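We close this part of the discussion by returning to an individual protein. Part of our work consisted of pairing the sequence of a single chain with a tokenised description of its backbone. No coordinates are needed to read the tokens, only the vocabulary itself. The amino acid sequence and the backbone structure tokens for this protein are reproduced below:
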Amino acid sequence: MSRDHRSHDCEPENLVGRRQDLALIDDLLDRPADAPGALLLSGEPGVGKTAMLNAVAQRASAAGVRILRAVGAEFETDMTYSGLNQLLLPLHEEIEALDDLYREALRVALGFGTGSPPRGLVVANATLALLRRAAAQQPLLLVVDDLPWIDRASSVILGLVTRRLAGTPVTFLAAARRGRGSFFDGAGLPEHEVLPLDHRSARRLVGFRHPDLAGNVVDRIVTAAQGNPLALLELPTALTGPQRAALERLPEVLPLGRRLEALFLARAAGLPPASRRLLLIAALDGTGDLALLQRAGRLPSVEATLVDLGPAEHDDLVRIDEGDHHLSFRHPLIRSAIVGASTTAERRAAHRTIADVLHEQLERRAWHLGEASVEPDEEVAALLERSAHQVVTRGDAFAAVRALTRAGHLSPAAPDRARRLAQAAFISADATGELVNASHLLEGARQAGTDDHASLYSAATAVHLMLNGTGDIDMAHHVMVNAIEKTLHRRDAYDPALDEALYVLMLLCHFGGRQELWHAFHGIVERVPDVSAVMTVSAAALGDPARVSAAALRGLDELLAGLSQESDPTRIVRVGTAGVYVDRLPGARDAARRIYSQEQDAGLPVKKLGVLPLLCQDAFNTGRWDETIRLADEGLLLREQVDYPSYTWYFRYEKALVAAARGDLGAAAETADAMTSWAVSRGAGQMMTAAAHLRVLTALADGDFESAFRHAEAISPAGTLARYVPHALWVVMDLVEAAVRTHRQAAATAHVRAVQEAGTASVSPRLALLVGGAAALAATANDEATALFERTLSLPGIDDWPFERARVTLAYGERLRKAKMTSAARRALLAALHIFEELGARPWADRAGRELRAAGWAARRASGSAALTPQESEVAHLAASGLTNKQIAEKLHLSHRTVSGHLYQVFPKLGITTRAALRDALADLDRQ
């Protein structure tokens, strides 16, 4: 047949991921004349066999192939030759051209005439003769769907015919469900199993047909469907609008549409009652524990044994692993179908049964009791509340919200109902990101009545809603302070709600960045004697890190040391956040990565948003700038899935830091302006300060020291460390350098004195590097400046902060050059240049290159004495190819410092100052 039917370059939307399957069928259609002309497609229900048959038939027809089709139907299985009648009906006029024996046999078999039933072999030969005759005029493709439902007589004839198609332009293509018996004898014929779609193709298919689904909803659909195309297309249709948009949480067992329910429940409908009861318990339990099923079966309400699972195994609905005594449903949607087909009474009874056998498992027992209850029950409600407190510390915020919501609805007393619903609302806003659900729960708590605990959770939830809406910091701060003040007047015992409320208030003070907000916070904390350790160190290290005490830093270090064993995501986020401005982020790195690497449905979307800025800033500080951009992009993508617009600015800020440092000054300035516009209307002083930091870095990169000084002073005036402005620490050297460059010596000296008196250098090696660099820049005598630079660059731990180290080294080289210490200046400038080029910090690399040229470096060119050693040559060529020092080190099994040392020797030998000049210099050397 012609190959014109191939069209793989344009894959049909409903056949996403089927390129290889279609290529196999195309090879069949284009087979050599003596090759077999038949193929059987098999696969699970809904896998797309019919869609493939339709697509192949459509493409073959367009290429000039004549299509003959038949579809098996259960009600026609007892009608002799009904399948053959469908297939050959388009050729009924050509039957008359056959010889008498074959003509009469087909007329009788197909119901076109009367007479004695013909023998099967005669009908088979007559069919083959008819097909060959028709194929002489036009190639034929026989397409048979649902082959197992084709009647016995037709199946026998088709089995005989398909073995005799070699040498003819007739092709046979059929499809059947995997594992279903058939009258068709396919022995010896090639068979191809149509497998479920891979993860990527599954997401593409859902995207084609349901582009409005939220990302996390797509993830859940793809997981449940397990690559089944029909399930991928049909599952979203059973969801409500809010569920599709991720504004409401999806049910634990996804509902099925009618087509899916009919498909996956057909075989379960005929099971014995005892089998169905056990399957429902297994479906609602979800663990597959055979011991649980065995215990449940002994109860009078069930009266079943594991033997009753036999019919379900025989029908391939479930599989039992004898090794670990575990039951699993063959497909997750079978579980959904079984739950969907049960009545509410049957489900409540099954939940009660499961709870009755789960004596030692609080969380699972509480949940099943909650599902089994229909009337208010304080005992069950209290059990659910206890279980919620346990699961939320493990990070399953969705389960905690679900348990507290159910506990609220089962609470007989209004104050208990209000407290539980308010706490559910808070967790929903603080951890899951479901702000719409949080709003609904908050309204339910308000309708239930007032309670101190409920008021605190309600206020904290309202603040989350305000900050991610149009509300401002001052209003949110007022709401939170009032709620806490009312509670403190009547507080007589430890209250976890107060802990949460205090932390939310502290964050508001941080976001606002104004002293008056912090004064109210400290006034409240003074009246709370048992403030948590996390709260204490956060208020000190995050609130006013310029004045953080040594005791607070020791406390923070102890908390960071405990994160390796910490499972509570909230605690990890809070401890990590406390370390941002005092350079403790490396201590939280592994724990933060643990949270971010958890599955999408782990109930932690907001906590993931919380750790991503920490990972971004840590990567920027330690010179992993490409990782900063990647993580920030992932954060922006996650932010689209979670309705927390305020987090957008964290990730845009991190990307803008890299942009400014690498010379994309327009992008950095645009982000700074956008941040300022958003922050001004909300009173978010901390964000305005972050925008000013971007402007400082942008101005320095552009060599505009006047603007840099102005923006740095907007953060913290020269000679002071502004209170409650954490960024004041980050711009210490920036302000001093800009002051020196603009001839404001008094301002530079005053600022150095202020940070030295504050003991800023003792906070971290990075801040010690910045303070030392600032002091050296401000020194007026060359001897004093040189000594300060050398002392600063010999400090321990500064290699972890490459950008700051390179900037101090650059300033050192500039000072040496101006002091006519040319040789030492070149060494320093070249060392700085290497780091800047590794980082991609083009403005600073260019500045170092200019200084090197000013030191006469570019005038030197390779000479006979400047020949490269073999290893220097190898390192130089790899660097010229674009590899980084780290990549070169891995390739040559060297340390990155050894690679840097070789390049340090190579540059002067070649008479160059930048990595970009390596390629041309090496080419010149080769020509010489």
